[in-house]
Amino acid sequence: MVIASMMILGQFLFRRETVPYQQLQRSTEYKHASLERVGERPASQFVGLGEDRITLTGTLLPIFTGGRLSLDLIRAMAKTGKAWPLIEGSLRMYGWYVIESINETSSVFMSTGHANKIEFTLTLKHVDKPDPSRMGRQSLSDTLNGYLDNASDYLMDAQ
User: Which of 26, 51, 63, 86 is packed most tightly, with the most Cβ within 10 A?
Assistant: First the structure.
């Protein structure tokens, strides 16, 4: 069975049922050094790649989409500090990314305090591929259990 996803970060699936983003913005910097010259424009030399960030924004409507729990799972991933492969649903590999920030704004509350609308912004930063010797090997179930443990810790910290 193939599970269609908009994007995959590590083992987190961006889908309508989890965190369907409505906008993807990518910003890539290229560094150039300048050297002043007399009577001419400064000389410019390419010195390498700069920051590469992807920002996902969207609105969650928990009645139809994922909600706060989905964002909490992403927060649990961020809390590990690990880099994760980012793969588009079309199988385009973006590279390895860390979760730099997660912002959410909740509104349209029910009497129980649950939000009917959650707007979010997720910022990812491109990093070099991690050294496999430092990554360690974990099974999928160990990784998912780690996510759940981290999510539980996060939820306990939030209270």
Answer: 86
Using one digit for the tens of pLDDT, what is the confidence trace for 73-90?
999 999 999 999 999 999
Question: Which residues lie across from 102 on neighbouring strands?
Answer: 122
* Cα-to-chain-centroid distance, residue 145: 20
Could you tell me the CA-to-CA distances from 28 to 25, 33, 100, 125, 130 in Å, in that order? 10, 17, 15, 10, 20
Q: Name the DSSP class of 123.
A: E
User: What secondary structure letter does DSSP report for 18?
Assistant: S
Give strand ranges (E) for 38-145: 40-60, 84-88, 93-109, 115-127
Rounded Cα gap, residues 45 and 9, in angstroms: 35
Burial class of residue 73 in the structure, from the number of CB atoms within 10 Å of its CB (0-12 exposed, 13-18 middle, 19+ buried): buried
Which residues of the chain register pLDDT less than 50?
A: 1, 139-140, 151, 154-155, 158-159
Place of tokens 């994760």: 84
- Maximum Cα–Cα distance for the chain, whole Å? 71
